[in-house]
């Protein structure tokens, strides 16, 4: 078992990473103030892990809230199910919400915790790779709006993150790959040695090798904890974590939430950011291709949806949260492992990026 | 013009109190970071003050969101109108929301600001006495849930509170009285000299005497700012501001939001707290009657709804936010000007309070 710390003053919290943590009350008890807990999960995860976690938390008065599964349900009506259950069971301000599931469950449970009675405690128990390495750490919570992803939410930190890496054994291969998109992102934005390590271990990760997974999760969480500790509310460096996300959000919004997995959209969006960085002269073609090749080896799409035109992207990106004072800010790379957030690029380069034939780029990559 | 300060470290903000402030850009400009403002108001206030405030803020790109009026609309569907408007007009993270109206507008606008893109700035411009002396100061924001009032919300501080006392001239008499319930509350919980001042000036306040109103608003805001500065998140002394509110919320919930005005419910609830304090031996009958008499002179109900039984109260109070670990905590008085928050009372005294014939108590009061 390994423990990292997210350093945020009086909102600091630990990330516990290991196998079998789900069954061990010692990782939960120190973070629960009251006598009530509410486990929030979804229809897919409940049959796999709910009973085990209920047994681990047998000492508490507990309720379980089982939400429908999927990004399409990351909305107010679903959130309301959590409030309904808490109020019906008369949970008070000392209750602790426990998010058992992937990013959607974590984001909604965290936002429910931020809002219920103006704020109660919560613990993240992420069961997907994507949520383990990204969304469960850092306190971004929220729901989608028909006009934009994550447009309604809060910065609200959990009391702890408990990552049971064994839960990845039940994760569909497609979702494992989606999680790897965010893992690869850390290498690209701030850790070139990690990128090289991933190139050497991507097959082991896809084969669920325990040691490789633990290493990848820990290095990813450590990178995220470092960035969040330096910039909790995303006024600066934290925005680099959004590499590929502005393009990716446009894909998710255009295709309808849940059609492309978040990690898949981020992968294609990352390729677009790599290409734009290349067109700006900041990355060589070989560096761009190195990123694309690793994403493809991880089982991820590296070509945006064929039905999306440049105009579609521009339209969706205009309402992105990264837009400040009407200027579009993007995360780009000035080298592998060196991300910047910038609005300082010619509009024509963005348009050239959006008109790139990514299929042709992919076709010329070769195998390794 | 008078300015008070709410002292909350890096979340500190000023309260400006005066006549005609609505027309003066100098009270707004220092608190607006970006180029966009969104004025949120309601159907009643818009015809009276919206155009004036739009003119004052003519230098900014602005939208106006006009909500339906009333506590019944303090709910998610109405909040959604604010998000819709912000997203349609592509307001970014640097936008400033401006709450122009009473407590419902202020609570919803503040909560919308807390959640929109995980938090944007807002300014309170309260136009009712109740919101000027209470809800606009202190950062409590939120909406109601069918199972309880203010059950979903956030602690989120404004950038400034701008109180134009001249707006009270358009306030219905019933709402002026409702505001006085909270003004009297400050005297009862922490400022006996203010209580005596109110006894001497209640007729002037009801007649909208400018000097008396400014004095009452300032002393109320000063009391609130002091308490909030000492305990922003209501872990202790701030809870004393809820005198009469636990009983009052039960009245509002039972009668349906908006049937009794919040201040009216608080007035009747305060009488119940006075009576319970008396039954505990903490207030003399004369002290209880002094509070009741002042509330009645202010035009407020001092008898709870006849259709509400003791059982109704107990049922509604069991889900109140003041319930911790299953124990009901109430704000009671150990003397006029000396409130305590306590769960340390015999259950029978609470039940005796709920069975009191308040009409008979009112009938024996006499005139002054």
UniProtKB/TrEMBL annotation, chains A, B:
Domain of life: Bacteria
Listed InterPro entries: Dehydroquinate_synthase (IPR050071), DHQ_synth_AroB (IPR016037), DHQ_synth_fam (IPR030963), DHQS/DOIS_N (IPR030960), DHQS_C (IPR056179)
GO molecular function: 3-dehydroquinate synthase activity; metal ion binding; nucleotide binding
Binding site for NAD(+): 69-74, 103-107, 127-128, 140, 149
Residues annotated for Zn(2+) binding in this entry: 182, 245, 262
Pathway: Metabolic intermediate biosynthesis; chorismate biosynthesis; chorismate from D-erythrose 4-phosphate and phosphoenolpyruvate: step 2/7
CDD domains: DHQS
Cofactor stoichiometry and binding remark: Binds 1 divalent metal cation per subunit. Can use either Co(2+) or Zn(2+).
Cofactor: Co(2+); Zn(2+); NAD(+)
Major localization listed first in the record, in broad terms: cytoplasm
Residue ranges occupied by any 3-dehydroquinate synthase N-terminal domain in the UniProt entry: 65-177
Xref: Pfam families: DHQ_synthase, DHQS_C
Family indicated by similarity: Belongs to the sugar phosphate cyclases superfamily. Dehydroquinate synthase family.
Primary role: Catalyzes the conversion of 3-deoxy-D-arabino-heptulosonate 7-phosphate (DAHP) to dehydroquinate (DHQ).
Protein name: 3-dehydroquinate synthase
Protein species of origin: Pseudomonas panipatensis
């Amino acid at each position: 078992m390994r423990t990292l710390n997210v350093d945020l003053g009086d909102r600091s919290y630990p990330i516990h990473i290991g196998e079998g943590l789900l069954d061990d009350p010692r990782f939960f008890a120190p973070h629960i103030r009251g006598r009530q807990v509410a486990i929030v999960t979804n229809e897919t995860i409940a049959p796999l892990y709910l009973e085990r976690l209920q047994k681990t938390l047998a000492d508490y008065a507990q309720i379980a809230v089982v939400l429908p599964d999927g990004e399409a349900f990351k909305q107010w009506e679903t959130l309301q199910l959590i409030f309904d259950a808490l109020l019906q069971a008369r949970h008070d301000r000392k209750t602790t919400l426990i998010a058992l599931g992937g990013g959607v469950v974590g984001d909604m449970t965290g936002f429910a915790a931020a809002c219920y009675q103006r704020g109660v405690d919560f613990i993240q128990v992420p069961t997907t790779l994507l949520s383990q390495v990204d969304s469960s750490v850092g306190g971004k919570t929220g729901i989608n709006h028909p006009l934009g992803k994550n447009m309604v939410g809060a910065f609200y930190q959990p009391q702890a993150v408990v990552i049971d890496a064994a839960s990845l054994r039940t994760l569909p291969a497609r979702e494992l790959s989606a999680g790897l998109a965010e893992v690869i992102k850390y290498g690209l934005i701030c850790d070139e040695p990690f990128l090289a390590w991933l190139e050497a271990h991507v097959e082991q990760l896809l084969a669920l090798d325990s040691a490789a997974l633990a290493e990848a999760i820990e290095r990813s969480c450590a990178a995220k904890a470092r960035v969040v500790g330096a910039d909790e509310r995303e006024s600066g460096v934290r925005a680099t974590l959004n590499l590929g996300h502005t393009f990716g959000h446009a894909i998710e919004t255009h295709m309808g939430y849940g059609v492309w997995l978040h990690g898949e959209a981020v992968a294609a969006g990352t390729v677009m950011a790599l290409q734009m960085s290349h067109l700006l002269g900041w990355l060589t073609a070989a560096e761009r291709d190195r990123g694309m090749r690793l994403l493809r080896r991880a089982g991820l799409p590296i070509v945006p949806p064929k039905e999306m035109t440049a105009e579609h992207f521009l339209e969706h990106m205009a309402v992105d949260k990264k837009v400040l004072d009407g200027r579009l800010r993007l995360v780009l790379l000035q080298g592998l492992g060196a991300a910047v957030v910038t609005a300082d690029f010619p509009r024509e380069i963005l348009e050239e990026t959006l008109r790139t034939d990514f299929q042709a780029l992919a076709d010329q990559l070769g195998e390794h």
